Each structure stands twice: as structure tokens, then as C-alpha cells.
């Protein structure tokens, strides 16, 4: 990330007040999803290449969904192929608006240059060790993310099976819950895929 960070530093620092590595993290998130953005942000913070305040903005500004997930939602669940283009454009435009508004409203981070000193890497770095470390790190991240997704999906499925939302809903309304967007919305807050499945089946 360091060469890319140095390349975009003048532009990124002047406009957003962020390290140049943000550009790479943002586009990586656009391609691979917000989990990649979170992972890269965590690595940059851990290595002291960005400050805590910058890490918060990195995490906020890279909360974008990858095209693979959007295509699954639009084609497999919603059964509307054209929805993919709409989701892709609106998703990224909304994030650009959030970045612009947040940068204008809130003060840009102040750079502490001692945090960003580039450490000289050992020229004898073993490539096989780097590759092994990257693979193990990727497997660990994927396992953690998959476990969390499965956990919240199971919670949503159990809630649907025992009709918790339905029972609470009928305490306050007489209209059928199937005609209301409430259930897909609540399930979406709990686990995005579960909400999309409910929306597609409604």
C-alpha cells in the first residue's frame, strides 16, 4: 500500500485530509466488499500508518458492497437483472455523497508525520513466508466473516420460525404483515442477506 499511498498523498490529503492509501482501500472495497476495506484499514492502523481518526473515516467511507454480492441479490434473489446496475450506481453515488458531506461538515484529520514514517523493509524478505502469511490471514478473515454471517442468519431464521416479529406486529396492527415492508426491513438490519431473501419472496 505504501507506493500507492505516496502516489495519491497530495490529492487525498488536500481534498479529504486522508492518507493516500485510502484510494486503494476504497477501490478494493468496491471490488471485494466492505469486509476487505475493514481488513485493510485494520492492517494500516495496526502498523501505525494511519491514525485512529483516519481509521474511523476509512471504515466509514469504505462501507460499500462488492458487485458479486449485488449480482447475487439482483439476479438470484430479486429476479430482476436490471436491478444490478441500479444498485451499483446508487450505492457508490450515495457513498460519494457521504464522503463529501462528512468532509465538509467535520474537520479534516491533522497529520502527525511521525506516524507515517516509512520503515525500511528487509530486502531479504522471504516471498514464500509472505505468501503463506497472506493466505492464512485471508482464511482467518473469511472464516470469521462467514461465522458471523451464519450466526445472524440463523438468529433471523429462528425469529421467523417462532413468529416473534409477527406476534409483536399483530399487537399493534390488523393489516397482514405480508403486505408490510416491516419484516424484510427488520431482517435486513439483522442480516442483509436474510432481508434480501424476504424482499425477493414477498
Architecture overview:
With 202 residues, this protein is an all-alpha fold. The protein contains ten helices and no strands. It has helices at 2-15, 21-32, 34-46, 52-61, 67-77, 83-105, 127-161, 164-169, 182-190, 192-201. Helix 1 (2-15) packs across helix 2 (21-32). The longest helix has 35 residues, at 127-161. Mean pLDDT is 79; it is low at 113-123.
In short:
This protein has 202 residues and is mostly helical.
How would the blueprint of this fold be written?
Layout (H helix, E strand, L loop, with lengths): L1 H14 L5 H12 L1 H13 L5 H10 L5 H11 L5 H23 L21 H35 L2 H6 L12 H9 L1 H10 L1
Helix pairs in contact: 1-2, 2-3, 3-4, 5-6, 9-10
Instruction: Report strand %.
Output: under 5%
pLDDT average, as an integer? 79
Q: Which structural class do you get from the secondary structure elements?
A: mainly alpha
| Strand tally | 0
List unreliable stretches of 5+ residues. 113-123
Count of runs of 4 or more consecutive helical residues: 10
> Span from first to last CA?
44 Å
Coarse shape: globular
Listing every helix as H and every strand as E from the N terminus to the C terminus, the arrangement reads HHHHHHHHHH
* Rounded Rg: 21 Å
Largest pleated sheet: none
Provide the helix percentage. over 70%
Key terms:
mainly alpha; 10 helices; 202 residues
Amino acid at each position: 500500500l505504501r507506493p500507492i499511498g505516496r502516489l495519491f498523498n497530495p490529492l487525498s490529503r488536500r481534498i479529504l485530509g486522508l492518507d493516500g492509501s485510502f484510494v486503494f482501500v476504497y477501490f478494493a472495497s468496491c471490488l471485494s466488499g466492505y469486509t476487505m476495506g475493514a481488513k485493510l484499514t485494520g492492517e494500516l492502523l495496526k502498523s501505525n500508518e494511519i491514525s485512529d481518526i483516519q481509521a474511523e473515516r476509512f471504515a466509514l467511507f469504505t462501507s460499500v458492497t462488492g458487485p458479486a454480492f449485488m449480482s447475487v441479490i439482483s439476479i438470484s434473489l430479486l429476479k430482476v437483472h436490471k436491478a444490478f446496475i441500479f444498485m451499483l450506481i446508487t450505492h457508490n453515488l450515495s457513498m460519494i455523497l457521504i464522503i463529501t458531506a462528512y468532509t465538509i461538515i467535520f474537520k479534516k484529520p491533522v497529520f502527525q508525520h511521525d506516524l507515517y514514517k516509512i520503515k525500511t523493509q528487509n530486502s531479504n524478505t522471504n516471498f514464500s513466508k509472505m505468501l503463506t502469511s497472506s493466505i492464512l490471514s485471508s482464511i482467518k478473515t473469511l472464516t470469521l466473516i462467514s461465522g458471523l454471517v451464519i450466526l445472524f442468519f440463523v438468529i433471523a431464521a429462528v425469529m421467523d420460525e417462532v413468529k416473534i416479529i409477527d406476534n409483536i406486529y399483530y399487537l399493534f396492527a390488523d393489516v397482514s404483515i405480508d403486505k408490510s415492508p416491516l419484516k424484510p426491513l427488520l431482517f435486513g438490519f439483522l442480516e442483509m442477506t436474510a432481508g434480501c431473501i424476504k424482499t425477493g419472496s414477498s
